Every structure is written in structure tokens, then in C-alpha cells.
Amino acid sequence: MTMSVNKRIARRAGVGLTALAAMACSAALTAPYASAVPTGLSVNARNIYAACTYEITANVDHWFEVWFHDSGRVIPGSPVKPSNGKATIQWTPKGAGTHTLAALQGSAWELKVNVLQPTLTGSATCGAGPLGFLGS
User: Where on the tree of life does the source sit, at the highest rank (predicted)?
Assistant: First the structure.
């Protein structure tokens, strides 16, 4: 009788330890993601025009990859590996209007920008031509 009681106690202890180990592993695997938080988001221009390419930079506090989104759509080139606390991607807005840019790395940081319709043809609006100052 003593032998079967000891086996039951050992079995219960084993199940309890297994459950405790599973919870500890789960916490260890998910904890870094909870602390990965973008701390800022910026675009390298004051005036932003459709069909021009800009650089979006997210300040981050972790080495996890950063996903960039434009109004809910993944920006091509995502995800990006951060370097020295920053993740950068090239972005070309397809149309004029309000765009919500987001950087996601565990949680998200959003920035609303107003994209303007180009006023000149060619690269001058984007800042590459002789009148490039008009587009920045």
C-alpha cells in the first residue's frame, strides 16, 4: 500500500513540475517580445509627395526585426533588421492623402503623414532636380 501511495505522490509531483517548467519556458520565450517596443518613427522629409521615395526610420530598443506598414499594408522590404537602435526602410507612397505609417516590433508606433500630389513632373518634385528644394 505504501508503494502505490509513493508512486501517486511522485506522479503528481512530476505533473506539477512539468506544468511549472512549461509555464517558465513560455514566459521566457514571450518575455523579450513584450519588451521590444519602437520608441519613435520619422520620415526624412517635411513635404511628402506621391511617387517619390523617402526613408522611414524607427528607433527601437531591441534587436528583433521591424515590420513597416503603410495604412495597414506591409511596405516592401519588410522586415528590417535594426542596427544601432534604428531600423530604416525606403518608402514610395502610391497616392496622395493621409497615410498611417507604422513600425511593429512586439508592439507598434504609428505616425500619420499627409502625402501631396506632385506639382511638377519628373524628379524635381522629389528633390532630385534643380528645383528640388520645392519638394523638401
Answer: Bacteria
